[in-house]
Amino acid sequence: MIVLPLPAGVTRQVIPTRHGPVPVLRGQPAAADPVDVVMTSGFFGTKEDFRELIALLARAGLRGWAYDYRGQLETGQPDQEYTVAGLAGDLRDVIHAVSGGRPVHAIGHCLGGFVARSAILAEPGLARSLTLLSCGPSMGERKHRAMLGGLAKLHTNGGTMVLWPLVRKLLADDDTVMREFWRAKLASMNPRWVTGVAESLAEEPDRTAELIATGLPALVVHGKRDRRLWSPDVYADLAARLGANRVVIEQASHSANMEQPGPTTAALLEFWAAAAPPEPAAVTR
To answer: Reduced to 3 states, what is the DSSP secondary structure of residue 285?
Structure first.
């Protein structure tokens, strides 16, 4: 795997959690006792997708964390289940490991949005806010079922590299470093992880009503050109039902965190400043 350079204020490390060591990117803000922000990536994403966002948050005094899904880029345990609920359990462990028991700002990109909401609903008080980044309410439409059905058959379709023609469309032609990084990432992905998560996502219902019941401040963010999985109308309806603000990032598609990290960070900081509740008590397990 190609190791991407990190911007100032971001470091790599491995943290211990209840389910074992987890590779993370960590922000290094100058502020004492900073608020933690934990970021969960999309289906084909990894922690590196958030490296610029973490650096910008560190400059603003917040400590960002991004981690890799267990089993995504390596073979997991034989009895490990790759489901949204299983990934949410891992996220809960990561949050407890990095935050000292205090609630965090949670950000979930696409798949990560489903994982983050599942974790929060399973453990109320885990987060002080939720940002759904390019994540709709469910994947129950026909186009979603067709895509997930195709992913669930990767074993017979030729493995994860059959996805390269789709992924490379999201990358600039002249960005050879990122193109080689993503190509190597796809080649290293565990097909069993892909198929298991795809099957689980197909069964994941719309849980918007459950999120509303928590009273948790929420933000919906997506790129202006982001139409592949959910339309702008779907994002607008989700935000309206949640009673959440919706921010549309100009000159971005599905990965505003990578394409436009500056405007995305600005939207997050404005949301947190307006929605920040009183300092919560530590979460105990």
So the answer is: coil
